[in-house]
Amino acid sequence: MDTVLRAVAIYLFLLLVFRIAGKRPLAQMNAFDLVLLLIIGESVSQGMMGDDFSVTTALLLVSTLVLMELGLAFIKQRSKVAERWLDDAPLIIVEDGQLLEDRMDRARVDLEDVLEAARASHGLRDLSQVKYAVLERGGTISVIPEKSSG
Predict the structure, then answer these.
(1) What range(s) does the YetF-like N-terminal transmembrane domain occupy (predicted)?
(2) Are residues 133 and 69 part of one domain?
(3) pLDDT band at 25 (very low <50, low <70, confident <90, very high)
(4) Does residue 150 form part of some domain?
(5) What is the pLDDT of residue 95?
(6) Residues 75 and 121 placed together within one structural domain of the fold
(7) 36 and 60: one domain?
(8) Residue 150 pLDDT greater than 50, yes or no
(9) Structural domain of residue 50, as residue ranges?
């Protein structure tokens, strides 16, 4: 039972840490982020396993983590509040070519991120060509261009 409680505690802790970190950093992993993720994985595995490195304990941990994920998915289906907290909601960060800086600061997104998405998705060069830019739940930026006249 101790193994299950350790797994639940670490799962909830990591969920909270990654929720606080925000969705944008997770969408754009670089080499540093990958190394950090591997170190975190190794660190928490030792905390979950304790002194028992048996196959049975490993299977119990995997089962616990999968059940936690299924349980949270079930809760998200039943509760919009839980879904919003766990997955967040899309966030408009540019409207009619104007940066919504307070939202961008909160989401840790900058002008270059928006312009990169605008270039990649529509070949836009300038912020004035952007009707809306939306930071999606997964951390990507969707751009809706201004309608061209003519």
Answers:
(1) 8-70
(2) no
(3) low
(4) no
(5) 96
(6) no
(7) yes
(8) no
(9) 2-87
Residue type, 114: V
The rounded distance, in Å, linking the Cα atoms of 61 and 59 is 5
Mean pLDDT lowest among 9-13, 32-36, 61-65? 32-36
Query: How many domains does the structure of the chain reveal?
Result: 2
pLDDT digit string (tens) for 105-143? 988 899 999 999 999 999 999 999 999 999 998 788 999
Residue for token pair 């595995």: 45
* Residue 13: how many other CB atoms lie within 10 Å: 12
Please determine, for residue 149, whether its predicted confidence score (pLDDT) is greater than 60.
Answer: no
Judge if 77 and 96 occupy the same domain: no
Same-domain status, 98 and 78: no
Query: What is the domain-level CATH number for residue 127?
Result: 3.30.240.20
Q: How far apart, in whole angstroms, are the C-alpha atoms of residue 79 and residue 85?
A: 10
Express the helix, strand and coil content of the chain in percent, nearest 5 each.
65, 10, 25
* pLDDT above 70 coverage of the chain, percent: 92
Where do the DSSP E strands lie in the chain? 91-95, 98-99, 130-135, 141-145
